[in-house]
Amino acid sequence: MLQNNQQTQNFQNQGMNNFTKSNRFEQNQVAHNDNNEDFNKILQGIDDEYDDQFMPNNQESQKNFNQNQNYNLNIQTQQQQNNFQGNQLQTFQTPKSEIGNINFPPTNGNLPPFYNNSPQIMNNNFNSPAYNNIQTNSLRGSQTTISNRPSGSISSNMLNNQQQIPQNAPNREILEALVQKNNELKNEFIYQFIKIRQTNQYQPGIKKKRYQDNSLYFGQVSIQGINEGKGMYMVQNGDIYLGDFFQGKFHGYGVYIHHNLERYEGEFQFGKKEGKGIYFYNNGDVFNGQWKNNLKNGQGYKHSNLTNDTYTGLYLNGKKHGRGELKYGNGDLYFGDFVNDVKEGKGKLTYANGTIYTGDFKNNEPSGNGTLEFINGDAFDGYIANGNMVKGILYFANGDQYEGSFQLNKQHGQGVMRYSNGDIYEGLWTQGEKTIGKQYYPDMQIQYEGEWKNDTHWGRGKLVWLNYDGDYYEGEFRNNKKHGKGVLTYKDDNGNLVQENVVFVDDVQQQAMPF
């Protein structure tokens, strides 16, 4: 195990991105000549064992295929065959760019950028009937046949151009999907198997075991017959594991390919993902980080293909938990606390439009005490619920200041507005508009108290001239002017209180009558 661990560490330090170019196989050709016979045994059995394990029953499939003689399924085009025939002796030494641009993140613990995944391995060259007898003299130094399937095997029949199947579109689509998925998984499996081969020399003792649940082990075993060393394990449901075994369990470095083509590459301990590992989702997402008990635990990095979001931070039991940074595809950026996959606790959210919130979060939203900084220079300090200002102080860039209640981020309810010129309004607001309140104008030494509309005196109100011993007009207003009927109260030259019924039109008195 010490040797295996050292080999695993060396492989991780290399980084999977270095696994490129055709000479990656030739470089190992001489080093592994002493084990080529064992390696050949494993490769030689891959194709037949895979078909036996996962393809449909031969007789049943033939019966279904032959129900209608009028439809010929051309799964493999002539162009694909020609492409394959020109490359069949080079399949295993094809440069990386020719086998689907598979970009594997480094496994040295550094958090990588996002990688293209969901590879189409080897351009499906293995789909060709020519694959029945592939010769790989470039791989092993001598011409050797990997697989020589009986021409009547199910997978071979499915790939023949003239196979008869029912002329039924849904059935045909199901069959094509089955063939495509089977070949993708097989090609991915073979590629991963060969890739692991490049980093470790196989030892004698290759065995094949088939279990009662129809799963299959193919690889090294201990003297006691326990799966130990390097090998592959094919699960009845279509999953495949390739890598290190110890005491019959996945242990060390390995690759686990799910039947839906999702893939984990990294460290295992006693049958579970544990340590550093990379997980490729079939929707294009990628996770690279720490694992424990088959779940993401510790530092990790994840890129979401659909939204282009990226998260770098802590995980607990498979969920974002602790401090982390989440970059959204729309340009928003959050740094702070997570609890069970949601933003919760203290954090800072910078929106793509330049707005910055710093403070409490709950259920993924700014909630609690916090501050908002707007790109226009305005700022808010107070209580926020579900991302909206509720109560606090709003500082305007021009020097104005509002303190009070909010609804949907607008002044709503009771509040005080202090203007930079010294004016002060105190009263009720409705969705950012003054409705009923009192405003003091120090420059003009007047005070208005009453109804408002469009930020002007409008409706019933009272206007007091503070520098005229408290003279006032109480009545109707429109657009900041006395307009309509009202009562004018003032003191005459003798100091007597006088009240007049008056009518104003746009601040111009029309008539006066004794009260």
Features of the shown structure:
MORN, 2 domains, MORN motif protein, repeat, alpha+beta, 515 residues
Quick take:
This is MORN motif protein. Pfam families: MORN (PF02493). The protein has helices spanning 2-14, 23-29, 36-54, 58-65, 78-85, 137-140, 154-159, 169-197, and strands at residues 206-210, 216-221, 227-234, 240-246, 249-257, 263-269, 272-280, 286-292, 295-303, 310-316, 319-327, 333-339, 342-350, 356-362, 365-373, 379-385, 388-395, 401-407, 410-418, 424-430, 433-441, 446-453, 456-465, 471-478, 481-491, 497-505, 508-514.
Beta-strand residue fraction: 35-45%
Q: Roughly how many Å is the radius of gyration?
A: 39 Å
Number of domains: 2
Number of strands: 27
Give the % helix. 10-25%
What oligomerization state is this entry in? Answer: single chain
Low-confidence stretches: 1-36, 53-170, 199-203
Q: What composes the largest sheet? A: 27 strands, antiparallel
What does this structure look like?
α3 packs antiparallel against α8 (169-197). It is built from eight helices and 27 strands. β14 and β15 (365-373) form a beta hairpin. It has a 27-stranded antiparallel beta sheet. It folds into two domains: 2-306, no CATH class; 444-515, no CATH class. With 515 residues, the chain is of the alpha+beta class. The longest helix has 29 residues, at 169-197.
